Amino acid sequence: MLIDAHCHLTSLSQDDLNRVAARLSSEFLCVNSSIDLATTEKSTALAGQNPYVYAAVGFHPFRAGTYTGSTISSYRELISRFRGRVVAIGEIGIDYKADASREDQEHVFFEFLRLARECALPVMIHSRVDLTQEPEDTVLETIDRVFSDYREVVFHCYSYSPALLARITDKGGTASFSLNILRQKKRIIESLRQCPLSQILLETDSPYMRLRGAATTPLDLEAVYVFAAECKGVALADLQTQVAANAARLFRRKEFHDEDRID
């Protein structure tokens, strides 16, 4: 089974969405991440219509300036209405390129972390900090205010150092590696090789993760699996089995996997 642990189906063109939908099956599942209330409404609706799409409901730091006092209650209602189809809160986090102030971003991030804990859902973290101004682990400070460990935390599109990865995995966290591994940047590849198989997910982050200047879709996922298997030195089938088991455990959906994990 191939599981795209983080993509944005509702941001695809209609033609691309139709192509992806035609391929979805019990052997190819997507966790559709959202970035604001509008995309969350679309994501939950799509998950309600397609048994092979699951929703992650989030609020990207780029949207932090649009957060209002009623935002969390709107998300709480959608989570309740689509219970079983919503498998995570995400993506949420901090991004130094966002127009919103750092204070506003941290406030929104914290409120969604609290919502995740309230609703017993894992979180998908978006983290992009200016390494010339602050350490790469700065996002952990906010997470640590809500979670005592990272067993419910996924660091989406992981691109930071092996040292930070060790801190994350030592606390039980999961790293999700995206199409960016195909760019073969040394730090990302070293982190991928270091990441324990039991704490890894794979994703496309399509269509936002571009390759060679071209837009991507979840149909590019197989290339991520093939490259990751080569880097980890494991058989492709074994990697598929392990990632499915990890996703089933994290998202609490037994249909993601019905076999025992490999060692």
What does this structure look like?
There is one protein chain. The chain has an eight-stranded parallel beta sheet with strand order 1-2-3-4-5-6-7-8. The longest helix is centred in the middle third of the chain and has 18 residues, at 102-119. It has helices at residues 14-23, 37-49, 71-81, 102-119, 138-144, 162-170, 186-194, 221-232, 236-251; strands at 2-7, 28-33, 53-57, 86-95, 123-128, 153-155, 174-177, 200-202. It has nine helices and eight strands. The protein is α/β, with parallel strands linked by helices and 263 residues long. Strand 1 (2-7), helix 1 and strand 2 form a beta-alpha-beta unit. The protein has a single domain (2-254), classed as TIM Barrel. The protein starts with a strand and ends in a 12-residue tail after the last helix. 40% of the residues lie in helices and 16% in strands. The mean pLDDT is 95. The radius of gyration is 17 Å and the shape is globular.
